[in-house]
Amino acid sequence: MTSIGFPVASPIDAASTKTGWKMTVTHTSAFSLKATKLPDEFDSDTMQEVRSDLADNGVSAPDGDDQSELAAIVADARAEGIDLSIVVMHGNPGHDSELRDLATEVAGFQHGTVAVFSDDWIGTTSDSISRVRLEWAEDKAKFKGGDSEEAAQILVHRLEQAPMVNWTEITSVLLAGLVLAIGGLYWVKSRRRSTPVPGAEPVREPVSR
Question: Residue 26's Cα: distance from chain center in Å?
Answer without folding.
Answer: 25
